[in-house]
Hints:
Blueprint: H1 8-19, H2 29-44, H3 49-90, E1 95-97, E2 103-114, H4 117-126, H5 137-149, E3 158-169
Antiparallel strand pairs: 1-2, 2-3
Amino acid sequence: MKKTCGTPEMKEKLTQTITGGLxxxxxxxxxxxxxxxxxxxxxxxxxxLSALAEELVACRAEKKEEETRIAAVNLEFEALAQLxxxxxxxxxxxxxxxxxxxxxxxxxxVYPSVQDKALLFQWIKxxxxxxxxxxxxxxxxxxxxxxxxxxxxIPPGVKCFLKNGIGxxxxxx
Length: 173
């Protein structure tokens, strides 16, 4: 394995170039506890940098294989969910219980998309909803969901899509 090296000054300059002097991103503390446990496992092996790098590359390949497998499972799940949703609609049902006591039910989710920023901005000013000026997707989604569920119009400049899906309650996973 090829190593690149340099002086501490070069390392510092590289760190500054990469980070732009920004502080380190705070990791999720619960996740980091788990990471530390796994790190202990690897540290006990006392592997060289080259060996750790090889393990990292192998782990990345394994991760890619698992992601491919999960993508196939997600595809299978979506196909089954669409079939179940179609059957529920055909039979005029909202939900069904499996023999194991798991409830499978129809649900709808709102997905807004800003179509006209100027029009939306005018609405934000008019309704004094200035907190929306830094609106995140989930906030806009929540706002639109609340407005629609209360029979109100969505903000001008926003177009909503409704995605029907299936929810599962109960069972082992």
